[in-house]
Amino acid sequence: MELNDQNNLIRNSFIKMLLKKGKKSIAENLYNNILIELRKKTKQKPLFILIKTIDILAPKLKLINVPVSKRRTRKKKNKYFLMFLNKEKQVKDAVNWLLSFSRKRKTNFLKNILNEILGTFNNKSKSIVKRDDTYIEIQKLRYNIKFNSTVNLLDKEEDFSTFSQKKKNKYLLFKK
Fold first, then answer.
1. Which of 10, 49, 56, 97 is 20 to 30 A from residue 86's alpha carbon, by CA?
2. Which of 30-44, 124-138, 162-176 has the highest mean pLDDT?
3. pTM confidence score
């Protein structure tokens, strides 16, 4: 049941992000074509690949910068607040990153989105770099974050298991 709910969530968010000028049927056809092409390329279940890709890419945390006018204190330092994202927001951000980086490529959109999905599945795409950069930004600003105890969740090695080797080395250098 949970897998079906996750599938519907991913499908709906993909179709909403693919919409242009309210053409929902075109977006649905494009989503179905993506699944068909994934099936042809990988010889695996396309929904499994898509769900796994979204799980790899989905950010769990987000930093919020509070503007000066809304703060009560008048310190010069910016205040950052750490926010845990719910599943819907995680999926929305992951799909947004996938589609934005696939639109930046030069060839056919269907090929671009397939290459981006497969690259993310193999931890080699630009959207993975974007996800790594957000976590490294959280690490850099960890002393300015309001809830420091929650940032310690990122100190575990298992949270960085999906990072590329370059980003891991960069993080370890920063930590020293």
1. 49
2. 30-44
3. 0.74
Write down the pLDDT at residue 104.
Answer: 87
Q: What is the pLDDT of residue 68?
A: 56
Place of tokens 């020293």: 176
What does the pLDDT average to over 46-70? Answer: 83
Residue 29: pLDDT over 60? yes
Element housing 61 (H / E): strand 61-65
**Separation of alpha carbons 174 and 106, rounded Å:** 35
Closest CA to 66 of 57, 56, 77, 54: 77
Q: What is the DSSP string of 80-133?
A: EEEEEPPHHHHHHHHHHHHHHHHHTSSS-HHHHHHHHHHHHHTT-SHHHHHHHH
Alpha-carbon dihedral of residues 108, 109, 111, 117, nearest 10 degrees? 160
Amino acid code (one letter) for 101: F
How far apart are alpha carbons 150 and 113 in whole angstroms? Answer: 34
Length of the chain in terms of residues written = 176
Phi first, then psi, for residue 106 (nearest 5°) are: -95, -25
Q: H or E segment at 134?
A: helix 126-140
